[in-house]
Automatic annotation (TrEMBL):
Signal peptide: none
Annotated Gene3D superfamilies: alpha/beta hydrolase
Keyword field contains Transmembrane helix: yes
Annotated protein name in UniProt: OLC1v1010742C1
Ranges for domain AB hydrolase-1: 100-342
Any GO BP: phosphatidic acid biosynthetic process
Source organism of this protein record: Oldenlandia corymbosa var. corymbosa
Residue ranges of the TM segments: 6-31
GO molecular function (one): carboxylic ester hydrolase activity
Length: 363
């Protein structure tokens, strides 16, 4: 979720509020470093001034890396190595788990995964990489007014995977990051052997969490306006007017469960405020490019996960994503939009781990 710099002094009509929300907001991770080439640089190797005034302090076992994109811009990556797997009865390592590449939504950055989910999944044997999209977190910002497009963000993810990861990973995208994952898998190679420079590197699977649906946020906006006008006004105030940055109650209602402790909401509120130096997208151009194209590889495993208490993406939005990919979405009770940061973050993590365990990395 991200909002562009729109400001209205008042909302004279429902249409004005719809326009503000729809077009003014983008609803829409000291251990061994990972294998990397010359274009990956650890923070210790270069003199970097933090771009976030409230920099995220890494947890034990995590390292901050910078991947240099073809543009010359550096993309922040927080890495945590997976715990060593047990030896099977036959004396060989268990099948190697696919790496996980986490992609955040608006007003977030790599840190949102590093807080709970990177430690959790690394403990379960998965190498974890959390990316900060350009203009977000500690990543460089491109020239212009917005960070990029669906195409450029997906291309940056593809460049990182192509150059830095040996095994086909699983992409995990949250909110607007889920829409980027959807665009990626609409342009992905069908198998490991296929060579096509115009297609993104092969992956093992894709998971979308509280994701913006394939058609974008337009349907959600209008459903809220006519069925939940008060909620629509609150979301508009929170995101378009950026009230979540200054109001603790509004921030909690937008992103977290009611039971979330004040000190945690305040901490994440500060990090979210500092995470995004520019909008992820130009919403008018984005809307013109939607819906995302269908899968190039229909056999690719896709997982759609939502939260019952999501204040941003409604149940119909979740179901739309499931229908588009021909899967039954899973909706978790007692979890809010930011399921990876919420006080019940383990619920979503356990469900995702169960799905990951069902994947065959050799497919």
């Amino acid at each position: 979720m991200h909002t562009e710099a729109f400001s209205f002094q008042f909302f004279p009509s429902i249409l004005a509020m719809a326009t503000l929300w729809s077009f003014g907001s983008s609803l829409i991770f000291l251990t061994k470093n990972p294998p990397r080439r010359a274009n990956m640089r650890t923070l210790a190797a270069i003199n970097v001034e933090h771009k976030m005034r409230v920099p995220y302090e890494l947890k034990k076992g995590q390292s901050r890396i910078f991947h240099t994109l073809p543009s010359g811009l550096n993309m922040e990556v927080i890495f945590q190595e997976g715990a060593k797997r047990k030896i099977s009865d036959k004396g060989n390592d268990n099948s190697e788990n696919p790496p996980l590449v986490f992609i955040h939504g608006s007003y977030h950055a790599a840190w949102c995964w590093a807080e709970h989910w990177l430690p959790y999944f690394s403990q379960n044997g998965y190498d974890c990489y959390a990316l900060s999209l350009l203009g977000q977190g500690e990543s460089d910002a491109p020239t212009g007014q917005v960070a990029g497009t669906l195409q450029t963000h997906a291309r940056d993810v593809a460049d990182f995977i192509q150059k830095e990861i040996k095994l086909p990973p699983v992409l995990v995208g949250h909110s607007f990051g889920g829409l980027i994952v959807q665009y990626y898998i609409a342009n992905v190679r069908k198998d490991k052997t296929q060579v096509n420079g115009s297609l993104h590197p092969y992956i093992t699977g894709a998971a979308m969490l509280c994701s913006v649906p394939p058609s974008g946020n337009g349907g959600i906006v209008w459903r809220y306006l006519f069925s939940k006008p008060i909620a629509a006004f609150k979301i508009t105030r929170s995101l378009a007017a950026k009230a979540f940055q200054t109001s603790l109650p509004i921030c909690r209602e937008t992103f977290f469960s009611v039971a979330m402790q004040d000190e945690l909401v305040l901490r994440y509120q500060k990090l979210m405020k500092e995470s995004s130096r520019m909008p992820l997208f130009d919403l008018r151009k984005l809307n013109a490019s939607l819906p995302v194209p269908p899968l190039t590889n229909p056999s690719l495993p896709v997982f759609v996960l939502g939260a019952k208490d999501d204040f941003i993406v409604d149940l119909e939005g979740l179901q739309e994503t499931g229908r588009f990919y021909g899967v039954s979405p899973v909706c978790i009770e007692g979890v809010a939009h930011d399921m990876m940061l919420d006080c019940s973050w383990e619920k979503g993590a356990r469900v995702l781990l169960s799905w990951l365990s069902s994947l065959d990395p050799e497919d």
